[in-house]
């Protein structure tokens, strides 16, 4: 199989299923030095007249450093057959293992970023905004208490989608 570049308007993606149920790999860095992590929180939409992805990463995650240093990141969405690989990538740190080697996923360079050959969809994003979440900004304080009582806050990243690749 091979990737075909598509316009974002040509994609048929249900963001609620793709992000919340199927999950995705968020990857930053270069083909020679990158890290990836599983995400199930995020958003697809439009902001500042551009199709965009919003992703949330805790500062403790290994991928955080890569996101801070990289102008690009990718969102790779996989068929259900790769659920076990995504589960592994979400429960193991790239500090301790080579996630691609452990899962059999094949990293590929796409439009200057790193995606995975087995993905059904890869979105290449340019980081355009990043900000730490703040417990004092929650309109519903119980959410901060529920999700951040013992964990670090997330940093929010908004990426403008530069390229979209689907399997042919």
Give structural notes:
With 168 residues, the chain is of the alpha+beta class. It has one domain: Pnp Oxidase, Chain A, CATH 2.30.110. The protein contains five helices and ten strands, in the order E-H-E-E-E-E-H-E-H-H-E-E-E-H-E. Strands 1, 2, 3, 4, 5, 6, 9 and 10 form an eight-stranded antiparallel beta sheet that branches. The chain has a two-stranded antiparallel sheet with strand order 7-8. A hairpin with a 2-residue loop joins strand 4 and strand 5. The mean pLDDT is 94.
Order of helices and strands: EHEEEEHEHHEEEHE
The low-confidence parts are: none
Helicity range: 10-25%
Distance between the termini: 6 Å
CATH level-1 class:
Mainly Beta
CATH superfamily: Electron Transport, Fmn-binding Protein, Chain A
Helix-strand makeup class = alpha+beta
Computed Rg: 15 Å
